[in-house]
Amino acid sequence: MNRTVNVAEFKDRFSELLALVEQGGELIVCRRNVPLARVEPIHNPAIRKPERRVVGCMKGTVGIHGDLAEPCIAEEDWGMLK
Q: What is the topology classification, in CATH, of domain 2-50?
């Protein structure tokens, strides 16, 4: 589906018009009824697919050394923090 729109309509309905492009349509954007740009879908799906995130993919890569509940500084030095 080809559609011609002026710049003002393109700005006002940007998201809606991009949804039409996403479905395979094509837009011709005009300024004062003179064609200015063509907006068309990218046909290479590898470019459009978001990266997949895998839960737990970093499991086993972090090591904890020491006690997490233990203070970082000696108890005698706590007075300097006041």
A: YefM-like fold (3.40.1620)
